[in-house]
Design a protein that fits this description.
Largest sheet: 11 strands, mixed
CATH architecture: Alpha-Beta Complex
CATH superfamily: Spore Coat Polysaccharide Biosynthesis Protein SpsA, Chain A
Oligomer: single chain
Number of strands: 13
Number of domains: 1
Shape: globular
Length: 302
């Protein structure tokens, strides 16, 4: 059974200042997600599911989905603030949906096979898709056995500001802990630093080779039921906190600690890039153009 690619595309990209998921950055106007779909198909994925918002469905279908129709099956599901379990209502003051793991849950009715999860506005590279595609295509996978592509933090940085990353701890190639770290950036000596909110916001250092999560997860269908359970627990605790979010790394971390899941960390030397800040855009355009010149991608993807 071929795995499915689940693309999280419901966010607006507040720091970038627009709907960056529709921004053409390739030589022929390709979006970053076009490269993900192309690489996924090349790596053996059989279907793509996009999680979007209702309010930009028409533009998304016209500008993005239309180009895939003769290449790979595509479905669309919707994330909304009122997509809550029975018995819960949206509290006053809530303005945004409930985070990345909530977005995953929106695809429960259309995915019944192993699947990978990615962000729409991140470029992950051909190698990363091949690595996770091989893992998900194995007939030996069982419920509770998951994976993630472990990018090296030094390969995921931007020169234009700070980023947040899920910093991973591993033992024998398996994830034992993932902690969301904020304000990761280069210091004047180009060392990688972060602000440790669990230690009075002390500034600490990260080695460039440390694996981090870029939200490139490989999951089994049982993850949907586990997510529903954890989302109810999350709501019971945080529903009245306006900015609380139900993040993928938080759920994964809890399942590992409970002994309900194992997560293989798949190494790659691929370099992530994306448009986190407006200043990043030209760098993305230049790097994609170079990949086309090198023959990694054809003149036109679709």
């Amino acid at each position: 059974m071929k795995p499915t690619l689940l693309v999280l595309a419901a966010g607006m990209g507040s720091r970038y200042g627009g709907l960056k998921q529709l921004d053409g950055v390739g030589p022929s106007g390709e979006t970053i997600k076009d490269y993900s779909v192309f690489d996924a198909k090349r790596a053996g994925f059989g279907k793509v599911v996009f999680v979007i918002r209702h309010d930009f469905e028409q533009a998304f279908r016209e500008k993005v989905l239309s180009k895939y129709q003769d290449s790979i099956p595509v479905e669309v599901v919707f994330q909304s603030i009122d997509a809550l379990p029975e018995g819960y209502t949206v509290p006053e003051g809530r303005e945004k949906p409930w985070g990345t793991n909530h977005a995953i849950m929106m695809a429960a009715d259309v995915i019944n096979e192993p699947f990978a999860v990615i962000n729409a506005d991140d470029f992950y590279s051909r190698d990363a898709f091949e690595v996770i595609g091989r893992w998900l295509s194995s007939d030996e996978r069982k419920p509770g056995e998951y994976c993630m592509v472990g990018f090296r933090v030094g390969n995921t940085m931007t020169e234009n500001g700070s980023v947040s990353r899920g910093v991973c701890t591993t033992v024998d190639g398996r994830l034992t802990k993932v902690v969301e770290r904020r304000a990761i950036s280069f210091d004047p000596e180009h060392r990688i630093t972060f602000v440790d909110e669990y230690d009075n916001d002390a500034v600490k250092y990260l080695e460039p080779e440390i694996p981090v999560s870029m939200n490139f997860w490989g999951l089994m269908p049982d993850y949907f039921d586990l997510s529903k359970r954890e989302f109810n627990r999350f709501l019971d605790k945080y529903i009245d906190t306006p900015k609380s979010e139900f993040f993928i790394p938080s759920v994964i971390d809890k399942l590992i600690r409970n002994g309900e899941a194992t997560v293989d960390v798949l190494d790659t030397d691929a370099r992530w890039f994306g448009v986190t800040y407006p200043q990043d855009r030209q760098n993305v355009v230049d790097r994609l153009a170079e990949l086309h010149r090198q023959g990694v991608y054809p003149e036109r993807l679709f």
